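Record type: monomer structure entry
Structure origin: computed from sequence
Chain ID: A
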Amino acid sequence: MTLGKGGVGKTSIAVMIARRLAEQGLPVTLTTTDPAAHVHDAVGQVTDNLVVERINPVEEIERYRTEVLADAAHLDDDGRALLEEDLRSPCIKEIAVFQAFARTVFKADNRITVIDTAPTGHTILLLDAAQSYHREVLKRGDAHSEEVTGLLPRLRDAEFARLLICTLPEATPVHEAADLQEDLARAGIKPAGWVVNQSLTPLEVTDPLLVSRRKRETDYLNEITASHSDVMYLLPWQEGGLH
């Protein structure tokens, strides 16, 4: 699973990982919230052992609304009106995508599943009270209890899940990534490592501007290894993105 703020290359890194694993003949599912066309372009030719899926927030919201209303057939008119008002809440998108995310992780037993996004650290913290989360927030009774209550233990299990925090070798992305790691720690989740994307450090550069930028990266890379993670992967800057 690749995590991080927008613009650090989570999707590109997830696509690279999925493609490399598939090239080794392993069964891989790549799940993304990114537009499907972009992902398919990045993946290239999809082989039989690589499946590309997309969590579409619009579709997930409609699926969630339909299922909740179907389960509420016993409500009177006033109760149904209150429920429909709840379903117009801005948080419904987060809940619906969270449900899809939990479903994806739940199914990840027989295939390597690469996910390019995840609920925020604060959302993951809600899983500490997973039973009340699926009863009170999802309002779905026990329909998805196994998927939801099983999510946090799976994310905590280093033998099952590998969470990679993605960042750039710059001040703001590194500090935002550190904040995300603190959120995960409070939920009992330890990332497998940090991925620093678009780094000039592994490259030989001569342009004065690039030399200066390459030198500035050192402080942020040292901060990561000294304060945030024992495991750091450097992905060199590439014209046209990752391959």
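Annotation 1: The mean pLDDT is 83.
Annotation 2: The longest strand covers residues 193-199.
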